[in-house]
Every structure is written in structure tokens, then in C-alpha cells.
Amino acid sequence: MKTQKSDRPPVNPINIEFISQPEKIILSNKVPVYFIKGGNEEITKIDFVFRAGFTAEEIPLQSSTTARMLTEGSEHMTASEINRELDYYGITFNAASDRDSTIISAIFLNRHFTKALELLKEIIFSPRFPEDEFKTLMNRRLQWFLINREKVSTIATEYFFESVFGKSHPYGLRLNAEDFSRIKPAHLRNFHSRYYIPQEMTLFVSGKTPTGVIEHLENYVGSIVHYPADRKKSPPLPYGEKKRNLFIPKEGAVQSAIRIGSQTIKRSNPDFSSLLIVNTLLGGYFGSRLMKNLREEKGYTYGISSYLVSLDLAGYLLIATEVGKKYTQKAVKEIFKEIKILQKEPVKDKELEMVKNYMLSDLVRMFDGPFATAESFRLVWESGMDMSYFQTLAQKIKSITPDEIIHIARSYYDTGELYTVIAGPEK
Amino acid sequence: MIEIKRCCLNNGLRVIVHEDSSTPLAAVSLVYMVGSRNEDPELTGLAHLFEHLMFRGSESVPDFDDQLQLAGGENNAFTNSDITNYYLTIPAVNIETAFWLESDRMKGLNITEESLSNQKMVVLEEYRQAYLNQPYGDATLLIRPLAYKIHPYRWPTIGKEEHIKKVTLGDIKEFFHSYYAPNNCIMVVAGNVSADDVFRLAEKWFGKIKMRKVHTETLPEEPPQKSARKLTVKRNVPANALYKAWHVCCRRDPSFITLDLLTDILAAGESGRLQRILVREKKLFSSINAYLTGDLDPGLLIIQGRLNNGVSYEKAENGLNKIIEEIKSTPVPDEEMEKVKNRFEAEHIMDRVNILGKVLSLSQYEVLGDASLINSEIELYRNVTAGMVSEAAGNYLKKTSCNTLYYISTAAKQL
Predict the structure, then answer these.
(1) Would you say the C-alpha torsion A130, A134, A136, A140 has a positive or negative sign?
(2) pTM of this prediction?
(3) Domain range for residue A402?
(4) Which residues, including other chains, have CB under 8 Å from residue A67's CB and lie 6 or more apart?
(5) Are A11 and B121 a contacting pair at CB < 8 A?
(6) Residue of B125, B359, B410 to mutate for A, most A C-beta atoms under 10 A
(7) A195-231: per-residue pLDDT in tens?
(8) Number of domains in chain A
(9) Is A363 in the same domain as A316?
(10) Interface ipTM
């Protein structure tokens, strides 16, 4: 059966020239604000980004609990008042931390713009961290933790990061049930006073923002005063554990979770774009080598993906899948086989064209609407870059050759250096 | 206001367009009016397995995904009890590729034994990943047969392992001819396109496909449940869980909107009553939620929660029942009504912020009868009164029509 090419509509070139730099202003207390305007709906999103996450912690769970406790009581409001007000005005509120940052986001209708700002200011900058709500929250979080720990996917991921970034590094931290009872409200107050301050903060405002937005931001956020705070020194660069193969038994599991990868370069490295292309070929989209082999040919799995992620202190490569327990070893073998093929055999024209067009249009999708655009911008901003990164990436996608792909696959997928972590039933 | 233009081809294919020049993308959604409800009780999971096979070769295109990705497209699909929805996004300049690919697989499939046996394996891994290898993953599989005795909603869309294994190429062909006809399909296109172009392309690519006789079966009506049902299972999970399911109206019934607000009063956000009273004040549950299945035939209202250690089922259920009885007897305060309506409005608008969200919402409303319902939905929610909420709670949340699942932890200490 061959494709009747005569029927096929022509494929037109995909351009990304529409991507532009966001507008930037500085509030009177020196807080930078980026505006990503667009969309048809009368709706706005604000992200408050503090560059303090796990690496700034003195004790595990400190940054995430500080963020989660913001809505549990403030200077002028109880937890139930805060939650009622957020819901009453239809504000979607989210507060979370990751390795490098804490991000507080709110999405709301423009007609509630000033009310939302007033509430956000109260919640984010005057929390009380009350004891009773703290206990309830920690119990709930512990329950979630215990449930997640039953999943092979969670187990494998946690041990993977511990191996790749090291047991003693915040990037590799694996939580224990005891961590949930060690943390106290005093830790949260300390974290909050150190990092929820103008000099650690950047705002991203996206959507069809209403008129007068700058004055409102100046009123509510620009008025927050600076005060000196001692930032915890950044931790040293992470280093991986010696042991490169790890098996964590999980009795009764019907699938194994496989995690394979290593530390790698960051976005600021000139090779990052090329590595992103190689990663996409290998496992970064539905048509990838791994997906075709392990799912569409062998039926070992419902899905397999590979990721390239850039953090402040390091990047990492990660291949992740869950496979039927009897295919575990075969799947690992096939993953390594596909890496070796990328390192040896030049990519054929049709596949290269497919991955190029897919990646260019994926860039377009990253800018589908103002919220997606803001997220894409924040991603490169965290690496100290701006929107021109995407133009450079597009150029690389258009120009990369099969020889370059082999070179990059050989340079960054050293199969002797890759960590293989498996969680599942014993053989 | 979301502007909608529509046409219907001679073969019965409905085409709905929303022009949005603010995005460089186009999104396309095709809904086939077939789901697990249409399956033979001895061959469940067929509709979903079939969805997988729609990507494995059509009349003249052996590689749907590759061809779409060549034009910069990305796609996915889902199957539920009522419908199968295929959707994609693509740079608007390459929209015609979507018409080529979708029309080709509506014309006919070309599935080999090898593809079929491979996708059976993939679906079985999906089953293991989503239901068997997750704590509490099989709870929804247990609730359906408890709540439904006659109606096809009694089996889950993923189907039974032994049914999936015995599907033949003949079954696949028959299923295709019975349901995958232009007159059983809705196509919605949104994005940087003109309606005239879309209608022209629809005629060009789909116009020649013949209207087919769609298999119509009268589904058996689920008889009213007369007495409460209960099921207890034991599993290796960290905490006891409680599930309760009541029969409610169908998605198109005007009461559905009232029930949707009722579930929001119970469980939306951190200020929902279940959350506020049962999790925060009384500390009976560590998490609790309420939702509607929203099916085309009468569906379920489900409340599910995980009990805190040391809390008995009796105490947890008493706490929950008290809240339900209060909604029936005491009018919900105006401010709380206003709150859930405001929340709905914000979420309804948020769903449309990207083009894919917009096209999927429009598809859902067209399935209900008219895509332009998207514009009147907020007003319908605004018109619901506290009296209507109490009445709906009284009508539907009866003790005698409740199905309860005790999902008991073998690890937690039992009381």
C-alpha cells in the first residue's frame, strides 16, 4: 500500500516571525513587570515569580509549604474568608514551587482586576501561617505523598533524580514521610521574609489586560517596600551518584516504570537547540523513534517520551515510560538500541523534514494565546534569555543536517554515563 | 460572543466554523456519534480500540500521524460512553492537509492483522497504566456495574481484557460501516481560517463520501433504582476511600445545569461545603470531590473521598449525609449562589483562551444540539435559583437510589 501522493495538498512553510518581545516596565520599587498582551476574552493572568525554590530551602518542603500556606490565613483574613473571596470572584489561584522558583499565579475576569490585586496582595505578602490550618494541610499533603509513593512512576522518577543530581543536592532530594512532621510554621515565616520581597520578584501579566493596569500594579505591588534580607548562598553544582543502574522492587505492580537519562547542558549552551532536535527525534513527539519502536511496533507500552530540561544549575535528559512487566528488559534494550542508531546512521530526508515541520509548528503552538505565550517567555527568561532564543531555535531547526545530528547524539548521549532506574515487580 | 457559521453537506456532514484571526493556528475537531454505549455487551472496549486503529492506515494514507506531522500538525483523540472525538491543531496555512487526512479515513480504513494485534497490546498497556497500576485506579470500573444493571453505561469505555483480546478484523470493518459515516459526524474548525474556505474545502474533500445507513439501536432504559446498593472491596492502598453515586438526568435536561451548580456548591474550590466542613472543620476526609458524569443518557452524580486515618465509615458518611440533607431543606444563601455562578463564568471563559480549547468546547455544544449554546450557557447558569438547587437535591440525591462503594485499605488500621 503506497501513499497516493497526487492527492496530497502542498505543505506550506511555517513561519514564526510573529513572535515579539514582551513590553517591560519597572515599578517604583524596582519590580520588573512583563506584559504579554493578546487574546479575545476579557481575562488576565498574573504570575508572581520569586527566584527561590528547593535550592533556597533550609529544610525539605519549606518552599512548597510556604506557597501552599498563603491561602490559609493572612493578617486581615481567615483561611475560609480567603477561599470564599477567591471563589466568589472566580479567581483561579495556584501557588507552587519547584527546584529554582516559586510561582504564584492567578487568572481572573478583567472586571475583577482591582479586587483580584487587592486580594493577591493580602494573600501573598501578609500571610500568618496559622498552626491549626498548617496541621490540616500537612496531613493532607502526607496522604497525597503516601498514595503517590505507591505508583511505580513516582518511585522511579524520585530515584532517578536522586541518582542524577546526588543524594545531598536539593535537585536530587527524595522526600520521606518524616519530612512532613519535621517542618514547622517558623520555617515558613523565615522563608517568606527572606524571599517574598521586591528584590526577588518579577511579574508576568498576560491576556487582554484592562486599561489602567500599570497604575493598579503600581498601587498594589509597586508600594511594597524593600527591606534587607540575606539570601541563602546558592548550592554547589550537583553531581551524580556512582551507581548507574538501580532497581526498586514494587510488589504486585503489573507494569515497570523505566527512567533513563543524565545531566546535560543548559539552555544557554549554543548546542542546546541542536540537542533539543535530537531529543525530539528520539522521543519528543508522537512520531519519534522510541514511540514508533516501543509502542507502534512492539506494543510494550501505552507511551514513551524523552525530555530535555534546563534548570538554573544544570540541564537533564530523561527518557520515561511504563511498560508491561514482562517487557521490562526488552524495553531497556530497545531504548539503548535507538540511541545507538541515532549515533551511527544518518537521519533520512523524510523523517528529518517531518521533525523539522513538527518542531516549527510546535513553536507556533507555544504561542497559542497570551497565557501560552507568557509561559514560553518565562521559560527562556529563567535561563537569562529572551524571545530571540526562539528565532535562533527556528534557524537551527531549519538548518540542521544529518551529520550534525550524529555529532550531537554522540556528544550528549554517552551510553556509559546514562543512569537507568527501574521500579517494578521482581522478576 | 463566539461567532459561528455552519453548513451541512449533502451527505449529512455538519460543518461548523469559528473565525479567529488572533492565532496563526487552526484547530479541527471531528466527533463521531459513537461510543462504548453502542458496543455489544460481549465485545466491550471496541469503540476505544477502534479509535486507536483510526491512526493505523486509511484508504490511501498508510501513515496518518507522519503525514500530519509533515505539515506541522499534532493530534489526539478520546472515546467516552457517548462519542469519539478526534482533534488536531495545525498551522492555518496547512489546514488543507487536515481535510485530506480526515476525509481519507472517513472513506475507508486499511487495517492489517498486525496493526490490530499491536494496538490490542497498546490498549492493554493503557488499561494497566491507567486502571490497574494506580492506587484506587479500579474504583470507577467498580461503580458502573453497581449503578447500572441494564443500560450499556454499566461497562467502562476501556472494556474488558478478554473482550479486547477477541476483537477481529471483521468486527472492526463492521463497526466502521455501522458508525463512521458523514451523516454521523460533526466537524468543527476554528482559527485563522475563513468560513468560505472551510466550506469549500469540506465540499472538495468530504463531498463525495456517500451518506451511509447508520446503525441505530434503541438502548435499554435503566429502570429507576428502588433501593440502595453497596459494594465493599479490599485493596492495598494507604487509606480507606468512599464513593457514592446517584442516578441523575441526562446532559441535555434543563436540570443538568442546576445539578452542576449543586456539585459546585458541594465541592468547587477550597470553599466548597465538603472541603470546608468535612476536610477542614471536622477533619473526616483528607480529600473529597463531587462531579457529574455528564452523559447523553441519564448519568451519575459521584462523590468520592479518602478518609482520614482513624475515622470510621459510619462517621464519614454521617458527616456527608448531613451536608446533603441541609442542601435539600435549607435554601443556599444568595452569596453562595452568586459565588458558584461567578466561578462557572470564569472557567467557561478560560476554556476558550487557546484555539484547541475553543474547538473542543464548540464540539461539545454541537453534540448537545447546537454549537452556539456556548454563548447562552452563562445566562442559563445565572437563571438558576436556590430553590431549584434544593429541589434538584431532593429529587436526585435520595438514599434509596444511592450506590455506595467502600474501598477498604488493607494497610490502614480498621475500626
Answers:
(1) positive
(2) 0.95
(3) 245-424
(4) A95, A96, A97, A102, A104
(5) no
(6) B125
(7) 999 999 999 999 999 989 999 999 999 999 887 777 7
(8) 2
(9) yes
(10) 0.92
